[in-house]
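Input record (one chain):
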Amino acid sequence: MPALRFCLVLIVISLGFALSGSAQRPTLTYAQKKEFRKREDSLKVWADSIVNGETASGRFRADSQFIRLLVRALKVPYSFNFPFDSLQTISHLYSPDSSFRIFTWQYKKDNFLYLQEGCIQMRQADGSLKLFPLFDVSMFTTKPLDSVRNRRNWIGAIYYKIIEKSWQGQKYYTMLGFDDFSETSNKKWMEVLTFDANGEPQFGGPFFSFKDDSVRKPVQYRFNIEYKKEAGTRFNYDPEMDMVVYDHLTPEGDQPQKKDTYIPDGDFEAFQWKNGQWLHVEKQLFTYKLKDGDFPMEQKMLDDMGNSNEAKLQESTDKNIQNGKKKPAPPAKKPN
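The corresponding structure, as predicted from the sequence alone:
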C-alpha cells in the first residue's frame, strides 16, 4: 500500500505540474528526441523498481542504477530540453522561469526509513550539463526549521510545486514537497530555494513569519505539517488568491504531542507573500471557503475514484504549450 500511495502522489506530481515552463525551451530535433526516449525507456525500468521492488537490496540496486543512467542521460547535450515525462515515479519540475529543473524521488530502505534523493539541473545556453546533487540528512537533525541548508545537508522532500516570487530584484522559488516520513505519519514541506553569488542552491531562510501567532516563533526558516498516515491533507498554491493554502490539523485523541494522530478539522490556514516573506494567515482570519470536494490547486488531476484524469492532463499540457508559444524564453545567464 505505501508504494501504491506513493505512485498516486507522483502521478499528480509528474503529469500535473512537470510541464510548467517546458514549452519555453527550444524544440529538439527528431534524432535528439529518439536518443532521449531510448534512454528514458531504460530509466523507467529502474525508476519503477525503486518504488515497487520487493526487497531492500533490490530497491537499493535499482536506485544506484537509476542515478547512474540519469546522470549519463543528462550529460547528453541539450538534455534540459527533454521533459522525461514518462518517469511517473520520479518528480521532475521546471521552475516557472525555466532557469532550472529539479528531480526528486524517494528510496525506501525499510518500513521505518525513507530517504529522499534528487538533483537540480541548471539551464545552460550551450546545452552542457550543470548539475547539483542533493543529499538528504533529515534523519540526522532534530531542528530542521531553523537553518539555511545547502545541497549537501538538504531536508529531503518530493517536490510537487514551485512558486516563483521576487523581492528587491531577487528571485525566490518556494518549493512544496511531500515526505513519506515514517511508518505512521507523513509530512508536507514548504521552503524557499535561492541561489547564492556562486550559483549554488540554498534551501531555507527567514521567510516564514508568524508575527501574529503567539504560539510559534516569530520567524521560521522552513515550514511543515505532520499528520496521520491515512489522512488526506490539502497543501498547495491557489493562484487566484495568490496564497499557499493548507488544512488546519487537530489530534484525534488527547495526546497533542503525537503528530501521527493529526487529521484535518475542516478549517484552513494560509501563507501570503508580502515584502519578501510568507506571512502566516491564521484560520480565524482566513475566510476562504471551498466547495465540498474542492481543493485549492491549479488542476484536479485525479478523478473522484482516484484514477488519473486524462482529459485534465491533456488540457493542462495543451495550455502549457500555448502559453509557452506566447512568451519567449528569458536569456540564459552564464554560469559563475
